[in-house]
Every structure is written in C-alpha cells, then in structure tokens.
Design a protein that fits this description.
Length: 297
C-alpha cells in the first residue's frame, strides 16, 4: 500500500468513527471510500486528493466546497507532520470530547473530526469544514483534560469563525479558479488547484493565521470550554506549559512559529478570565488523560 493510499484510508477511518448518520450525508466525499472507489484514477479518489468541486460566490464557499478544501489541506498536513495515531481509544476519546465542545460552539451544525498525528512538534491546526489536527507532541505535553478541551475549543473557534476560509479569500489564494468538477480538473486547471492548496498549506502550517484571529479563537475557545463545563483557566495553563518549554524548541511549523507571542496571549486571557468568576468550581481533571497519553507513540 502506498503512502497516499494509507493516508486516505486512515483519514477515512477517523472521519467515519466520529460521524453520525446525518453527518455522513453531509460529508459525502468520504462516503464514497470503498473497494471500488479507491482505485487509481477514479473520480472519488481525485476528489479526495483535492480535485473536488470549488464553487465561489459573493457569500463565499458553500459547506461542501469548504470541506473539500479542508480534506485537501488535511492530507497536506499528514504529509508534513506525520500519520494519524492509530489507537482506536485515543481516536474515540479525542472525538467524543471534541464533538461535545463543538455542540457548545458558535457553529454546532456541521460535523467535526479530530485527529492526533505522530509529530514531536507542539501544534494544532483547524482545516476548513471542521477537520482539526493535533500533534502528539502537544497532546503529550498537556496535564489535564481541561487543557486538552481548551486546545480543542480554540481550534473549533477557528472553524466556527471560518478563519482559514477568510484568510484564503483575503489572500486571493483561489484566484483564477472557477466552478470545477473532477472531470474538469485536468491539465492547467488541476495544476491551479494543486498550487492553491500548496499555498494554503504554507499559510496554515508555516505562517499561521492573523494575530487578531488567534486572539478571537482564544476568547471564543474559553467561552466554549466554559459552556461545556471545563475551566477556561486551563487555556492559560496550556500557554504556561508552552512558555516553559519554549527555550530550545523548534520554531518552524510549531505553535511558537504560527501563533502570537505567548506573553501577549496570556495577558489577554487573564483579562478574559474576569468574565468567569466561578472558573475555580469547574472541572479540570479526572486523571484519565494520562491513560490515553500512554497509548500515543
């Protein structure tokens, strides 16, 4: 099995694990995966490789197109950071927690999919359409479920506010692309799409989103965590952990290279914490995170 077939199969398994029946109908691109549909050259395989329908309008991307971009970017993320952790318990735990948080977000009406990838770098990314990637290096650095919940809530906020989509549109990364189908995504049009996806990957995985978007995701992430019953203070704890480990850490492709300075974020979050006077009464840890961390390579 080639690397790309393995990536496609693993991502499909992760997405199917966390989908309900209605969600499957929404994300039809992955419904097609099967023995007949993963053959080299098949239309469905091309869709999964990023040769999907891209429709633009004055209102922006529709959900199906947003998800197609997200899937393409997720594959780029796997190529860059590593394959998903295969342990079914870890997958289920992260997806159950993530979807519980998503239900309390500002965009609860789409399916969300959470993947932990094998990477020593400490970072997390949200792809358009609700695909969220966390590095094993970041997850293993966390001490409590509350900290993990706040990281997930931060990434959910990016999806809810369509930060990646807005960045793509502002940067005109889809410029020159019109409505396309798998049949038409050949030759020059296909090359345009692949170049656009590569540019988007560079923006998300290397440059990062704008500071204002990151601060907004911090604020809304704390709100989502609080609504779900987790202490919003745990996000400050996450940043303190990263601050302690910053010296000597790799910058490119990590949290340190794709997010605003930690001291600025901590100061802003301490200000936001005043909106949650009862945060000390909320749960932060049951101790079970360690069991899952031990299952991550």
């Amino acid at each position: 099995m080639t690397m790309q077939k393995t990536v496609l199969a693993v991502l499909a398994a992760v997405l199917m694990l966390s989908m309900s029946a209605p969600a499957k109908a929404q994300s039809g691109l992955f419904d097609a995966i099967g023995k007949e549909h993963t053959k080299e050259g098949s239309p469905e395989r091309k869709l999964l490789q990023g040769l999907g329908t891209i429709m633009r309008s004055t209102q922006g991307l529709d959900y199906k197109s947003e998800l197609a971009l997200g899937e393409s970017l997720a594959l780029k993320g796997f190529e860059r950071y590593g394959m998903p952790v295969e342990d079914k318990h870890v997958r289920r735990f992260v997806n159950l927690m993530g979807n519980a948080l998503a239900m309390n977000s500002n965009r609860p009406d789409i399916p969300y999919h959470f993947v932990v990838v094998k990477s020593p770098l400490k970072n997390a990314f949200s792809c358009p359409g609700g695909i969220i990637i966390l590095s094993s290096g970041l997850v293993k650095s966390l001490m409590t479920e509350g900290q993990l919940a706040n990281v997930l809530a931060h990434e959910i906020a990016h999806v809810a506010q369509k930060h990646a989509v807005k960045t793509i549109q502002q940067g005109q990364l889809l410029q020159g692309l019109s409505q396309m189908t798998a049949a038409g995504m050949q030759g020059e049009e296909g090359r345009k799409f692949q170049k656009a996806v590569s540019n988007m990957a560079t923006t998300l995985f290397d440059t990062g989103l704008s500071h204002s978007m990151e601060f907004e995701a911090d604020r809304l992430g704390m709100q989502t965590a609080y609504r779900t019953g987790y202490s919003p203070h745990a996000m400050i704890e996450v940043l303190r952990i990263l601050e302690e480990r910053q010296k000597g850490s790799t910058v490119k492709g990590s949290w340190y290279g794709t997010h605003p300075p930690l001291d600025q974020r901590i100061a802003k979050l301490n200000g936001e914490l005043k909106a949650y006077p009862d945060w000390k009464e909320l749960r932060n840890s049951t101790g079970r995170l360690n069991w899952y961390k031990e299952r991550i390579p």
